[in-house]
């Protein structure tokens, strides 16, 4: 692999890629204009991400690493640069992808958008201080700094407590019988008991009969008295007297929880702790000095808890008190604007990052970039329309245009047809997925895509209504699940009825409460009532886009159970039987058959000074994961590593005579995943792929019990052509007598539902109500619903 070293001329307005071979790309040559909005399209698995992220972004990042850390050049070489002959004209890149980025648990909307910094500055410079108080530095308003954090809870807002009920779950036991469950086991526990006995406490009376002041001391004292213990004869061994130090159960639990290096011990200690709001700061996380400062009559904690739209209104109404305040308020409002514009005005600054969806997080980052003042860079985005109601897509397009107008290049992997239409330039990868894709079918302005043979996007972009499958009449419900007086997040006393035996779509703008209602309340309620024999639903299955495993040790074959079948076939070969090998020999997760250099991972970790550690193929097995003796065993001509390298499609042909394997392979093919390799690690699968693998695993089981399937935006990451395939499967489940509930923005999907529940009218406190419920046609005719006219358009 060599990289062009020719000086790049900036007169050439194109990024030029030559010979890209990352993943399934087949020596792709493509020219993409700089300073324009380019959308990469194609069916799922065609190679869009391999081109936009795997090649373009990875190459820009590699060049950056080389420029900041030239010493790392050899290591970078070992990891491997993207497989491409040359890329010219590439500006430095900023990636705003959603898949692989999860911020820490201490980050929040405020830290991700940098709005917290500005707000702290406002309080530091322009807040109202109590008489006589000195001005505070802006750090003093941050719970994440020593200067600002409440000393009682270290800025967490809550503290861990123990209680007698937790420490002594069974008060009928004596100390000798183990009343104090929180004590360590074995010798250390006996030691503490012996010390108490020396100190004169009754260790043989039931716990509840001990005097209250003794119980208090035993559990909670901070004293650590040292006494001489004369152990009694234990199993005929004479033990010497020793000096023992007492430690209360409370102290032991807190020490273990905060200091222990062992995760198991920490987890055990956590069982004896509860979380409660910090009494010192009342959960506001700051020192009292900081909480005494106000702006517009409110503390910084109060402003950080407001939805951004309300925060903006407070700032707009604040009396202009001096030049510093005016400038800071203007800056804050300027930063809040794009966030609200992208449909996220319902979020508050103190909302923690782990509670946000991937789409919300990406849009927050996008809004933040608008104010960064960066120009001359390329932004690479992964489906920014995910989670966005059609009513908000206009705003997204406006934001992308502004990034471009500021002098940047914008690359977007996207399926939403409104975004595709809006592009200056379109790169279609295809024609199909995996080894049937990987070519650039078209690179040019959207309008000229029309004549391109084999383009899946052209069919959907230009065909309009004709391409729709005929609408079937809506189905009638066989019953319903009722939720009454639901109170959660922004839902206030909502009553909802979910019909059974039909396909239901839940709609509404971002933040209206869809995920709360479906993913939390409905799922929990059904989960609880399922054991009741009178309840119509027998099983609940949530099919989400979470990975099917967090390590490369799980893959398609292990998840679906196919690998068990495959390993049985290998143990039945004459070679394996001769050697007496069982199924474990063919697992890469246990010693025996696997390669020990990489312990069956196929990869080894490479540590780079100052840079995130990364992976390189195992030098011993070159990624095969097994040792050579294991690889000598062949079933029908292939060894186990070669079988894991088969695509689902080729495996279906290879295992055609093995019913147990053929069934699950067919289910995977039917759902459009024929292009995946059996051994493809869970960590390399997209959310959409993970979701369809779960669905296929479900479909191959063919259950009769009435099952409720719950899916949150199942079309994320799917091309309209893939959506058709998915819908056929979901409607198939309904035909088989089950119920399906989806949270969905794609109006084609909603138009094909039997029942629609529309939440809103807005997000956050402006939402949380059911605006309309009925058949798609009924909801499309409802006034006051922001979904209605988009749905009407889709109904045609
Ligand atoms: P798209 O973005 O169009 O959905 P991708 O570029 O993600 O497609 O995938 C193209 C092909 O490359 C697929 O066959 C996919 O399974 C494969 N692939 C994706 N990521 C990896 C990876 N990290 N390693 C190996 N193959 C991969
Ligand atoms: P949707 O799914 O329609 O986008 P959500 O159900 O995610 O909406 O959110 C509805 C409201 O509940 C929003 O105001 C959101 O900020 C709030 N919310 C959602 N999840 C949480 C959470 N984990 N903690 C606090 N508030 C939340
Ligand atoms: Zn506190
Ligand atoms: Zn190895």
Structural class of the helices, strands and pairings? alpha/beta
CATH architecture of the largest domain: 3-Layer(aba) Sandwich
Shape: globular
Q: What's the main sheet like?
A: 6 strands, mixed
Question: Could you tell me which ligands this complex binds, including any ions or cofactors?
Answer: adenosine-5'-diphosphate, zinc ion
Which class of the largest domain in CATH terms? Answer: Alpha Beta
Q: Give the strand order of the largest sheet, numbering strands 1, 2, ... along the chain.
A: 5-10-11-3-12-13
CATH names the topology of the largest domain as: Rossmann fold
**What does the average pLDDT come to?**
89
Report Rg: 31 Å
According to DSSP, the number of beta strands is: 23
How much of the sequence is in beta strands? Answer: 15-25%
Overall helicity: 25-40%
Which stretches are low in confidence, meaning pLDDT under 50 for 5 or more residues running? Answer: 1-8
Give the count of helical stretches: 30
The named CATH superfamily of the largest domain: P-loop containing nucleotide triphosphate hydrolases
Our count of domains comes out at 4
Task: Report the span from N to C terminus.
Answer: 52 Å
């Amino acid at each position: 692999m060599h990289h062009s070293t020719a000086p790049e001329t900036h007169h050439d307005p194109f990024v030029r890629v030559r010979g890209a071979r990352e993943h399934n790309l087949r020596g792709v040559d493509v020219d993409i204009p700089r300073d324009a909005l380019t959308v990469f399209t194609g069916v799922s698995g065609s190679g869009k991400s391999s081109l936009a992220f795997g090649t373009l972004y990875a190459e820009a990042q590699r060049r950056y690493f080389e420029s900041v850390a030239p010493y790392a050049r050899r290591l970078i070489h070992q990891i491997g640069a993207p497989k491409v002959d040359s890329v010219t004209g590439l500006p430095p890149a900023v990636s705003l992808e959603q898949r692989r980025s999860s911020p820490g648990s201490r980050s929040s909307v405020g830290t991700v958008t940098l709005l917290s910094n500005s707000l702290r500055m406002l309080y530091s410079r322009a807040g109202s201080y109590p008489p006589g108080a000195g001005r505070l530095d802006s750090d003093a308003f941050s719970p994440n700094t020593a200067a600002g954090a409440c000393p009682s809870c270290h800025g967490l807002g809550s503290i861990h407590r123990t209680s007698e009920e937790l420490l002594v779950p069974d008060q009928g036991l004596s100390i000798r019988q183990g009343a104090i469950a929180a004590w360590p086991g074995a010798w250390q526990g006996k030691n503490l008991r012996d010390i108490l006995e020396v100190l004169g406490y009754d260790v043989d009376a039931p716990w509840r009969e001990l005097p209250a002041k003794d119980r208090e001391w035993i559990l909670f004292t901070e004293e650590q008295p040292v006494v001489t213990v004369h152990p009694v004869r234990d199993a005929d061994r004479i033990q010497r007297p020793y000096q023992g130090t007492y430690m209360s159960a409370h102290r032991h639990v807190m020490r273990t929880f905060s200091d222990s290096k062992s995760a198991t011990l920490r987890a055990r200690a956590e069982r004896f702790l509860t979380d409660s709001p910090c009494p010192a700061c009342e959960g506001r996380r700051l020192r009292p000095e900081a909480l005494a400062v106000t702006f517009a009559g409110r503390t910084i904690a109060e402003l950080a808890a407001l939805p951004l739209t309300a925060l903006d209104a407070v700032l707009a109404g604040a009396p202009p008190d001096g030049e510093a305040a005016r400038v800071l308020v203007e800056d804050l409002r300027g930063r809040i604007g794009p966030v609200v514009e992208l449909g996220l005005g319902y979020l508050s600054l103190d909302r923690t990052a782990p509670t946000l969806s991937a789409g919300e997080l990406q849009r927050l980052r996008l809004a933040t970039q608008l104010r960064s003042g960066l120009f001359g860079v390329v932004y690479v985005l992964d489906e920014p329309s995910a989670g966005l109601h059609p009513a908000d897509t206009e705003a997204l397009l406006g934001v992308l245009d502004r990034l471009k107008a500021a002098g940047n290049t914008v690359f977007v992997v996207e399926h939403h047809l409104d975004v595709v239409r809006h592009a200056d330039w379109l790169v279609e990868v295809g024609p199909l997925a995996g080894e049937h894709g990987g070519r650039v079918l078209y690179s040019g302005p959207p309008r000229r895509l029309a004549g391109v043979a084999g383009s899946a996007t052209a069919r959907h972009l230009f065909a309009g209504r004709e391409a729709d499958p005929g609408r079937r009449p809506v189905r009638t419900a066989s019953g319903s699940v009722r939720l009454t007086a639901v109170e959660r997040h922004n839902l206030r006393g909502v009553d909802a009825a979910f019909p059974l035996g039909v396909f239901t779509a839940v709609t509404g703008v971002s933040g209206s409460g869809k995920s709360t209602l479906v993913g939390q309340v409905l799922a929990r309620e059904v989960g609880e009532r399922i054991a009741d024999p009178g309840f119509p639903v027998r099983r609940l299955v949530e099919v989400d886009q979470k990975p099917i495993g967090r390590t490369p040790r799980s893959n398609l074959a292990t998840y679906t159970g196919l690998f068990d079948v495959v390993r049985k076939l290998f143990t039945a070969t004459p070679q394996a039987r001769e050697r007496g090998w069982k199924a474990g020999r063919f697992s890469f997760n246990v010693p025996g058959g696997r390669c020990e250099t990489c312990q069956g991972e196929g990869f080894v970790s490479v540590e780079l000074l100052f840079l995130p550690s990364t992976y390189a193929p195992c030098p011993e097995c070159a990624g095969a994961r097994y040792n050579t003796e294991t690889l000598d065993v062949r079933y029908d001509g292939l060894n186990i590593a070669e079988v894991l390298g088969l695509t689902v499609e080729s495996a279906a042909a290879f295992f055609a005579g093995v019913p147990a394997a053929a069934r699950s392979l067919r289910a995977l093919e039917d759902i459009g995943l024929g292009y995946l390799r059996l051994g493809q690690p869970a960590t390399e699968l997209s959310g959409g792929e993970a979701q369809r693998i779960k669905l296929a695993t479900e479909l191959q089981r063919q259950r009769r019990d009435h099952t409720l399937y719950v899916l949150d935006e199942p079309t994320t990451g799917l091309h309209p052509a893939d959506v058709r395939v998915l819908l056929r499967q979901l409607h198939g489940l309904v035909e088989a007598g089950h119920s399906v509930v989806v949270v969905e923005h794609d109006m084609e999907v909603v138009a094909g539902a039997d029942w629609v529940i529309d939440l809103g009218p807005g997000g956050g406190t402006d939402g949380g109500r059911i605006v309309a419920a009925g058949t798609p046609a009924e909801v499309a005719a409802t006034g006051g619903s922001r979904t209605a006219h988009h749905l009407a358009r889709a109904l045609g």
